[in-house]
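Hi there,

I know you've been waiting on this one. I reran it after we fixed the sequence typo, so this is the corrected version. Both the input and the resulting structure follow.
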Amino acid sequence: MKIAGLYLMLLPLFAVPQGGARVPSTRTAGMLKIAGGKFRPFLQAAGQPYKVNIAPFYLDIHAVTNDDFLTFVKANPEWAKSKIPRVYADNNYLSQWAGDTELGNEGIRNSPVTNVSWFAANAYCKWKGKRLPTLAEWEYAASAPPANMKRGIKLTTIILGWYDHPTPRVLPSIGSTYKNELGIYDMHGLIWEWVGDFNSVITGSNSFFCAGGSLGAANKEDYAAFMRYAFRESLRASYTVGSLGFRCAMDPPDNKIIASH
């Protein structure tokens, strides 16, 4: 499985910043346990079952904020914008911040952190004792319909409406779009989000927008999903984007459902 392309091949040549001590054991606070179930992937890989099993997992209720990530950087200064090797993040890394440990604009404190690479997102999750969600887990959770919007509004309407507008200079705060029926906020409509295996579906980006490339799609009219998968495939693990952030996932430590709304 391809995770980070050429960059992972370079790992032995560089000392990957590991971070300091992990955060204490209250790691399930702010997460919800997703029960799991059967899920039909948007794109079917050769030999893949029509539906795949999603095991139970925990997922952050909200995306990681600038304030959250600032706490991480202060504890792990090797991930500061002036210190991180360029192989792990491009020149745009945390460009919305005023300095290594200064946001500069208090208006972004509760906004989702963006301009973070896959490497940085992965390091943050590990520091928290968690991990990035898999593509299948993220899509499964993101497919849940809205719970706190007017009756009859479709998920695709929300997504396409978001695609239709440019990314604002200052992103809205987390929790500002919608909560889905699983209790998770902002899965669509606020930012794109990294997943652990972000480029595990390899088809060639152009093929997403021609008839041949849509043959294996679960729904050939789901333009929003075509856009998500094409965007993921265009990424490299060191890329940073002003509308791309992340949230953490975790395997269940036990059978209890621990949530913080």
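Quick highlight: The two ends are 35 Å apart (CA to CA).

Best,
R. S.
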